[in-house]
Amino acid sequence: MLGTTLKLQPELDVEKMSVPLLLQDKVALVERYVAGFPDLQRRLLALMDSWCQPGFDIKDVARQYPQVASLSLEKLSPKVLSRQVLRLQEQFGMVPALCPHAATQQRLAALRHLCHKRFVEKSLSQENWADHVQGLVGHSPWLQEQLSQLLTSLGDPGTAARCALNLLLPEDQLPATVAAELSRLQLQGRAADADSRPNVKDMKDQHYQLPIPRENVYLLASREDLARHEGALLQPQQVVGVDLEWTPVFVAGGRPRPSLLQVAMEGRVFLFDILALTQPPAGQGAQAFSQLVAQLLSDPSITKLGYGMAGDLQKLGTSCPALAHVEKQVLGGMDLLLVHRQMRVAGMPTPGVDRASGLRGLSLLVQQVLGTTLDKTQQLSNWDRRPLCEEQLIYAAADAYCLLEVHQALCREPARFHLSGDLAGSQRPRHRERPGTQEPPGLREASASPRQVPVAVAEATIPRVPARTFRVVCDNMLQGLARSLRCLGVDAHVLGSSEDHRRAAEVARLEGRIILTSGQPYHTLRAQVGAGRCLLVDGSLKAQQQAKSVLRHFNVRVTHEDIFSRCQACNSDQYLKVSRDMMKQLMWLSSHQEGPWTSGDKATHSQERQEPGPAPEEAPGGSTHDRPCRWLQAADLCAEMPDMLANGTRLQLARVPAGVLRTPGLRHFYCCTRCGKVFWDGSHLGRVATHFRDVLESAPGPCEPSPAPSPAGSSF
């Protein structure tokens, strides 16, 4: 560095001085060497850019300097080196034309990224992908060739040919298999993307769905629009979700310009068209927009939810000078990104995450909390183009509205996500953050105030619902939950295995039921039945845990008398009582059927049925059962078949073990009039009471008699 100290740089050959240092990955020394000498900086950029040209091999340069230990040549690959060149070009204040090869390498990296999004993650629509790719490739033969190779490696020849046809790629640049498929498509005259575009309708239910009507999404593009909705936007004590959309930039020197600001509140979403509102920059529309946004963000009574909110607001400040540094003025802000980090710190498991899909950020949080993923096909679309398409508007609204639903779920069950009851406190790191990673003061101070954080509604304020009047419809993935709820007296209808999830909404509306679902149709169903009528159940929990969660959520009152008041198999609450002697004869007749009953048989059995005998002794498990239902009568049985009720239901006598008839103290059985299932006293009641002890009201102890008898405690 003697030359630098003596300022001899203009007298020395910059290439001979720089190349050995670059081969040793000492770029910082080279930067200091050319500092203050614009001509040397231009020559250095030209040298490094020449190493980025297609087909260049850095090993050829390394062989010219055998005395240099070139241990870091991988850091001089075109991909890495092009980043260094473009960084220095911006740092030196040079024109981009000095670095054409680095810019081309950057475009190639962008092409690889877009192809991965389109063909691997499938998170980018064909239209948006083609729009970006066309701008990146342009008329560069080398980039066209690279794109052809990418398409061939990531998709089948048919997909590559359709994309090549859509992008007008030269046929001589395509591999033989792709070129042959392209010729076939041209002969058939088919549209380029007719088969490659995903079926949006079929994929609709696979992602988070906006749970509000489309007419409740408002696009604000003028001063008059702002004035019309100002009252709703600045309503005190509300919670809003805030998000920002911008067109991605893939070329050197570009800066993303915010295009759309979304503000979601309960039942509505407002989309601020930033491009329209800020033109002209000093116009009345721009002033009204800046004042309204500043007032919204600085109102401490309004809780603002975001994910990486500080970064979004910094971008907003770059395009709206009046909102510069607005991220430092936020009061009442809650950044769910910081909450999400604490969920990870606590070691929260991530059930259902498809690691191969690479979920991250807000999409990962939505999957973990709501059980579904965000549809990101419009994320990289052209947000500067006007008018915005319908898909972009729905995507933008959903991106902001999901923040409200995530926040509600976290407030309702913080322990489930390994968070403290003070959700605002979850934003504060549990360990010392690295310098420069703290959130802006405005967000940090606002989150420290517990008054800013709405909490879940206290259970005591929700009306108690008796178990026998609580009615639900479960999707076919929650059959275990339905059986557990029926066990506690809840009327639980289950969809058949062949029934579509839309059937749940029909049943809920017709019969006044609550929908319980564990699948992705949650948002679609919720939009059809209204708020509070659909619950997303955690599919990773066991059935009994799910049942407890549902009962607590809806504040359902379960008493000891409710246990087994419904048949777990068919949901009926109608039983017939059968004496042990009668059951013994029915089982014998069922296994020795030779003809119809005689009138004498009927009389004998009728007499036995009408004489219930003494009260049953205590059953195993410490409880007695005496379901208040009528005794089996002769008219209830089919004359030709003694094991069939007159309504056509066949009693499931074969499933009753013969040894049960010899159980001491067992005097009667119960049979379900709908499915014929047979129940009897046993230890099952005690086990159920123990399992659900924490949700039972005034449940008796394990050795206390039941204050009000209930149906049988064991079943087969």
TrEMBL record:
One Pfam family per UniProt: Mut7-C
Molecular function, one GO term: 3'-5' exonuclease activity
Gene responsible for this protein: EXD3
Organism: Sapajus apella (Brown-capped capuchin)
Biased composition (Basic and acidic residues): 602-611
Region (Disordered): 421-451, 593-626
PANTHER family assigned: 3'-5' EXONUCLEASE DOMAIN-CONTAINING PROTEIN, EXONUCLEASE MUT-7 HOMOLOG
Superkingdom per UniProt: Eukaryota
Domain 3'-5' exonuclease: 217-415
SUPFAM superfamilies assigned to the protein according to its UniProt record, in alphabetical order: Ribonuclease H-like
Protein name: Exonuclease mut-7 homolog isoform X7
GO biological process, alphabetically ordered: nucleobase-containing compound metabolic process
Keywords: Exonuclease, Hydrolase, Nuclease
